[in-house]
Amino acid sequence: MSVPIALTIAGLDPSAGAGIAADLKTFSALGVYGAAVVTALTAQNTQGVFGIHDVPPDFIAAQIDAVFADLAVGAVKIGMLGEPSAIDVVAAALDRYRPIAVVLDPVMIASSGELLLRSEALGRLRDLIGRARVVTPNIPEAAALLGTAPARDERQMSAQAQKLLAFGAGAVLIKGGHGTGAESVDILLDASGESVRLAAPRIATQNTHGTGCTFASAIAAGLAKGLPLPAAAREAKDYVSATLAAADRLGIGSGHGPLHHFQAWW
Q1: Residues identified as active-site
Q2: Which residue range forms the structural domain that includes residue 21?
Q3: 124-158 pLDDT, tens per residue?
Q4: Where residue 87 sits, what CATH number does that domain have?
């Protein structure tokens, strides 16, 4: 039996709520074998980020080469890329290996508010968008990429998604977790013009650490399994909603705790 494989290229959170740890949990929960390339080591927990140690770009490239030389990667999820040089080597690797399904989560700010992307790297990140099957910014990240104010409603989210398509991505999914109202609504817009509204009840919890990482990696898992993008996005939305609804059962940490990635089994 051939097992679908997804690769995460992201930072390491030692408290295992976000980044590579969240991605690997998500891949496993959704029936996909997970491989991982570390772009940065962070000192963080549920209360904040206290330090970042960037992995040298040549070693990021060496990790990527090692994975693609041996594993049949079905999808790639890209998360934290703090430095311009890290973005450059990842872009070069994508050009070498041409993976079909690339999910780019433009990680800029941690759940606790700390900056994870250096300001000088923002322009390089815009260039990377053109190599993605789908880019998954939240409302503040979409605004930062466009240099505009955050969207206040679904109409503005759709308009910003349309503008982000101009950077060359196959599709844009703007996540509505930072919005307001009884529903959390995400807008998926494909370059073909197809638009999908993904809605779920908004869940009242402070345990949201790693939500964006989990959503993007869940989409990558679906693409690795061969699902069309709209189906992968719907599966990811359902999965994230379930992990958020169960997050308070974990009781881990005293700040923004992690999602319950294995709520269906524990």
Answers
A1: 175, 208, 210-213
A2: 5-139+208-249
A3: 888 899 999 999 999 988 988 898 999 999 999 99
A4: 3.40.1190.20
